Amino acid sequence: MTPITEVEGRRVSLSNLDKVLYPATGTTKGEVLHYYAATVGGVILPHLRERPVSFLRYPDGPDGQVFFTKNPPPGTPAWVETTAVPRSEDPGARQVVVRDLASLMWAANLAVEFHTPQWRDDAPEIADRMVFDLDPGSPATVVECCAVALWLRERLAADGLAAYGKTSGSKGMHLLVPLEPAPSGEVSAYAKRLAVEAEAALPGLALHRMKRSLRPGKVFVDFSQNAASKTTATPYTLRARPEPTVSAPVTWDEIAGCREAGALVFRAGDMAARLDRHGDLLAPLNDPEQARPLPA
Fold first, then answer.
1. Do 285 and 49 form a contact (C-beta atoms < 8 A)?
2. Which phi and psi (to 5°) does residue 88 adopt?
3. Burial, 296: exposed, middle or buried (Cβ in 10 Å; 0-12, 13-18, 19+)?
4. Which Gene3D superfamilies match (predicted)?
5. Could you tell me if 94 and 100 are in contact, meaning their C-beta atoms sit under 8 angstroms apart?
6. Is 0.85 surpassed by the pTM of this model?
7. To pair with 19 at 20 to 30 A between CA atoms, which of 33, 60, 80, 295?
8. Rounded to an integer, what distance in angstroms lies between the CA atom of residue 42 and that of residue 54?
């Protein structure tokens, strides 16, 4: 029988709690749900609450079937909120918005990564943050990503913008910048301009083009996730990787001090202590007073 628990007055069905989702560490689905409920619920919700969410589902673990979905899954409870996100192939499309702990636990029970756009559901295609996805081409690692991140931080600061870092939870990292609301197309154009500048300033290290033949040993500065239709792994989401790695906020001291590929790998079990030490390092992203205008 599927156990049912009550979360903030909502009845939430939780299934297969003993199922191992991460064989490399023996991490069960029940432990994953505990991570979202008890460890990061209070900090992930502000990053999810006002954004349509896309799910990368891995119901049988990262070695099983993994698939991406934007539509609300079949059987979505009526109390889970959705918002209209029209697409050319489906003008009536809607997506889930995770506004509360009950919705978070319902979604986490599906075994998912959470991915969100750079805009909020009340202002589609108007971005309130900018993202750079730094993706290393082997043999480059997160160490090289950190070097590019430090250059981008200084370049953004020259334009009056503050940057905040997090690991991707995979092999790279993300830089996020709070903005006064601006059209996604304008944000994308500015991000591309900085990616091109990064390649010119760091020719042996940074790359703004996606072409795979150019990428070995370099860091691809992916600006494309600023497009209104694109999404990025939400802060604190677990990833569908061999181990329960987290897209974890990091300090600039950690970025500057990174000397080996494993230095910025954080797992679910690391996050309680990090939150006790740092709080939510990405809280400024949700503070309107920290937003700055996009440079002309």
1. no
2. -60, -35
3. exposed
4. DNA primase, PRIM domain (3.90.920.10)
5. no
6. yes
7. 80
8. 20
